[in-house]
Amino acid sequence: MGEDPVGPEKTQTDFINEELNLNVDINNDKSNSKTETLSNGNSTEEWIDILGNGQLKKKVVRQGKNGTRPNRSDICTLKIIGKLKDGTVVEEHENLEIQLGDVEVIQGLDLAIALMDEEEVAEIEVDPRFAYGHLGNEPNIPSNATILYTVELKCAKLEDEIETLSANQRKKIGNKKRERGNWWFARNEPVLAIQCYRRALEFLLPSENRASYQTDADDSTTDIELQALLEDSMKVYNNLAAAQMKTQAYDAALKSVDSVLSCQPQNVKALFRKGKILHYKGENTLAYQTLLQAAKLEPETKAIQVELTVLKEKIAKEAQHEKNLYRKMFGTHKNNIPLKNTKKESTTKAVSNITWSLIGGATAAIAGFLLYRFVS
Fold first, then answer.
1. Which pTM value belongs to this model?
2. Residue partners of 200: CB distance under 8 A and separation at least 6
3. How many CB atoms lie within 10 A of CB 230?
4. Chain Cα centroid distance, residue 128
5. Calpha distance 36→22 (Å, rounded)
6. How far apart are CA 108 and CA 127, in angstroms?
7. Which of 36, 16, 37, 38 is nearest to 26 (CA)?
8. d(Cα 117, Cα 28) in Å, to the nearest integer?
9. N-term to C-term CA, the chain
10. Which of 79, 217, 308, 364 is the most buried (most CB within 10 A)?
11. How many helices (H) and strands (E) does the chain have?
12. 363 band by pLDDT with thresholds 50, 70 and 90
């Protein structure tokens, strides 16, 4: 969880083309997607199987304006009614405004709306996988529920350039996306949460290439408004780090918490997460030092103390392991006999062996000489 292993977020078209290999032509609902004809009384209805696996289907109820399909990041205004299979209404919105592609609605709707024209009315059947899954959604959507939506795309318009928005507008939009990221994170969908948090930062920090907030803002933006944007962006970075940790993108998460600490060096949440990230990366001593800083600021926080205890034990074990290695390399035998004594014994044995060899050699020479004289 190099940079984030989940990679850049895909658009709806990318998801359909690359992940599902369907190559759907967004200008033609019927291109390369499966159609299903259902008999209903005297009428015949045609469903488009968007993903080709029966988990997301769309049927046009009323045609819209040709050539008016929205693009990613367009602002779409929708009328939505969602029902369970038994007809129970579980969702209803008259003028819901979303930014397409930012998963501000469930994934199934985000994908299907990209295939609608303005003023079109469609029925969209969404499998639990692309709706609310096994968690459901309190208070009225049960676990593993298939939902049938009636959706009208009232209009779609281009998003405003971020630089043209006031600080308060950027703050409002950025926090809306942060809260949506929190919703996905709470549902254990960290990849979608990351997508929302990154989009939130685009509004709270409009350009990474600019040196400061002051250059981003127009002359009417006050210091108080800029400070509010800064504080909100720090919340997003902290949440982004938590989501990146869930995906094991530890290097990316470290950059996120460092972005917080560069502005708020005493941010306990960022210090705690940095300590955990370093722990996961195996940098235990540095992790311990970082968590000590957090503990000084909030000594009563149990989570920090627990993490410190775990790290202290690991560091002690690592130190003992290193000590044992040094002993093997430079120190003692298993019976704690110094290595120099062993060398002395080996030297004595060697001298003794040489002495007896010399005596044996001399004796053999004398015997040979006597034998030679006797024979001669």
1. 0.74
2. 174, 175, 177, 178, 181, 236
3. 15
4. 23
5. 16
6. 8
7. 16
8. 11
9. 96
10. 217
11. 11, 7
12. low
Cα Rg, the chain, nearest whole Å: 36
Neighbours of 133 (CB within 10 A): 18
- Tell me: cis bond preceding 139? Omega within 30 of 0 counts: yes
Q: What span, in angstroms and rounded, lies between the C-alpha atoms of 217 and 225?
A: 10
- Residue 40 backbone phi and psi in degrees, to 5: -135, 95
User: In which order are the strands placed within the sheet that holds 75-83?
Assistant: 34-40, 43-49, 56-62, 121-126, 147-157, 75-83, 89-99
Give the pLDDT band of residue 3 (cuts 50, 70, 90).
very low
C-alpha of 203 from chain center = 20
How many whole angstroms from its chain centre is CA 108? 21
Written as six digits, the tokens of 210 are 């600019």
Across 11-26, average pLDDT: 45
Average confidence score pLDDT of the chain: 82
Q: Are strands 56-62 and 89-99 parallel, antiparallel or unpaired?
A: unpaired
The secondary structure of residue 163, as a DSSP letter, is: G
The residue type of 33 is S
Question: Rounded to an integer, what distance in angstroms lies between the CA atom of residue 83 and that of residue 147?
Answer: 6
